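This is your field. Please look over both lines of this record.
***
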Amino acid sequence: MTTKKAYVVGTCDTKYEDLAYVRDLIAAQGVQTLLVDVGIRAPQGKPDVTNREVAAFSPTDPNFLDTADDRGRAVADMAAAFAAFLASRTDVGGVLGLGGSGGTSLVCTGMRTLPIGVPKMMVSTVASGNVAPYVGPNDICMLYSVTDVAGINRISRVVLANAASALAGMIRNPVPEGQDRPALGMTMFGVTTPCVDMVRKALETEHDCLVFHATGTGGQSMEKLADSGLLAGVLDITTTEVCDLLMGGVFPCTEDRFGAVIRTRTPYVGSVGALDMVNFGARDTVPERYRDRLFHVHNPQVTLMRTTPEENRRMGEWIAERLNRIEGPVRFLLPEKGVSMIDAPGLPFYDPEADAALFETLKANVVQTPSRRLVSLPHNINDPEFAAALVAAFREIA
């Protein structure tokens, strides 16, 4: 029997029968189990970890269950407590959650704190809709419950048994540790693909190069790996998600962009790839306030808007503030001849004035030190010379 445990999690005040059924199926397959109650009322049966034991990990009020009159507030408090509870455990082999919308939000909050690779499965009534708010940049497996999680019937018996077998199998058969090369995270967009491909090919004999599409979730996924200690370095060539965060595009990063590098001091080489564009959907979805701007239709579903000098100054200030908080080694390279494939002479987004506003703002606001340096180069981001400079910068600090 493996020493790692399957954590079966849900609200035992409403779903104890379903949770106990899953726990027993997993245990029958030779995996130790813990049934964890994250309900806010008295349980229908006896869990292995009570809701009060979980609540004791609340970062704000360990006694919130005594005053849990506001269900929404209590669920949020329990979600934070469960996340802290999971972070304190050293025997988590995997987590299986059961729930409706509230339970899914609660349990997935805890799941998202676990490292990539730890098995996570959520059986949920909302798993057939938009699951991005629950999953985020994490490897959470969502399984639609079909019927409500409200007792064992001919449908739930099969769905829950499949979930139990899946989690037990993942815990009993972990991926063998290999002799993998050190992993590098890289960000890429279609308009920076030539650059990233050249960098990847230059480094892939020594490193496992993981390329992330800079669509908001892509950047979050890369930073999740850095937070999990799975990256030896970051080549953040395409920081375009900052455009969408500040200007309201459809591929935004979060306010925590660069946060993983700040926290972990992972060697970091960055650039300003695709900061010339804000992403929207089809042309008729562009907000009214932007109707008179310069656009480029990338495809019928993606419309690109050229950033202005003022917007570039805003982005420069925002990025500089984040870079100044990184205490690990940083090299941030500026391609003076254009930041994307379509920011070049004769192409739709060529605007030296806008680019200059970005570069000058970064130079004025980034506090340079021996470990944190800006490097300006007379190349377009997709020129071979610029890719070579990125590789050299990474080798210098790594």
Observations:
- The first strand starts at residue 2 and ends at 10.
- The mean pLDDT is 95.
- The longest helix spans residues 71-87.
